[in-house]
Each structure stands twice: as structure tokens, then as C-alpha cells.
Amino acid sequence: MDELEKITQTISTFLDEKNPCTEHEIISKLKADKVSPFDQLNIQHSKDLFCAHFLTMHALYQLQNEYLSKQQYCLNIYSIKIERHPYFSNTTMTELTTKNGSRNNHDSLTQHDSLKDYYLDISHYFETSENEVNELLNSFWKKYLAQDDKQQALTTLELPANSNYATIKKQYRLLAQKHHPDKGGSGEYFAKINAAKRILDALY
Fold it and tell me: pLDDT tens digit string along 154-164?
């Protein structure tokens, strides 16, 4: 299907520019580039959001297989992060795991076989009922909206999107001291700073 190839190609190009990234960022990119059918989907509606989510995951797992078959990259697909690594052989990855104690890319791929099988079966895209969509989206919708909340909170604190929690806490303290009402600051802005910090506390 030409549309699926275009989706996969767009995601691969996006990973050249931004790696790691989130599913939210990928969907936003597909919509911004007017890739069909993303340009016609209203993700405020549960069925359309499911379609965007499913097609994105389908393309990501297709891309994962393509990268591995070409021994080009290892693509880790998690609910909150998509990350592409250079391809490593099983031997090399085992050695790396022994050294640093972390789970290797191949292990992370095999642990998600059932999920991968689901998303690679394109029939689910066409046959999933409205009730099933609502159940599947219950947790995803919260995560998707949380990304928008996170970006808005970081903007309020005048921080870039890749800020870590230590940076967030430091910046919050600086802004809170500067804009505290007792020191002549704006009470409204001080409230926004505190609200932003609460959102980020819940996400980190």
C-alpha cells in the first residue's frame, strides 16, 4: 500500500532528524507533512486517534523489521519513547550487556512479540470495534495528552523539550524566587509556574 510506504518513509526521515522521539511527535510530524490519512484525522475523536496510533505503530514495527533485515539499525519501540540505535550483532550486544548490565536491543524486541504481532496485522485497523477502540485508547489517550501538557509546562518554565528533572527543579526554584508575590512578582504568573511544576512532577 503506497500510503503505508509513505508513512514509513516519513518516520524514517524524522528519526534522522530527531532520535529519540515520542509517538506524539511522530503523529504530529505526519499531520504537519499532510501524510494521508493523518491529514484527514481529527485526533480529538477516539476512532481517529486509534487510527493514527495504529498506523504509526504498524509503520514503526515494519521499519523495525526492515532495519534488522538490512542490519542497519535496532529500533526500540516503547510506550513513551521511540529510539533508534546502530545495528549490533548478537555477540556484540551480549558483550555490551555484560559490561553495563542493561537489557540489550534484541532482548527488548523479543519481549514485545505479541504486541508486535497485533500491530503488524493490518486487519485490526479495519476490524476493531468502537468499544475495543475506547478500551485500547484509555491509557494511550492519557499519555498522548500528557505530552502536550508536558510541552506547555516546559514552555512556562522557559525550558527546552529535552530538559531533565534536575534542570526543571533548578529552573523552577529560580523562577519561583524571581516571581514570588512577596517579592513584587505576579501572582498569576507564580501560579502558572507552580502548575507547570506539578505537571512535570507527575511525569518524571
Answer: 888 999 888 89
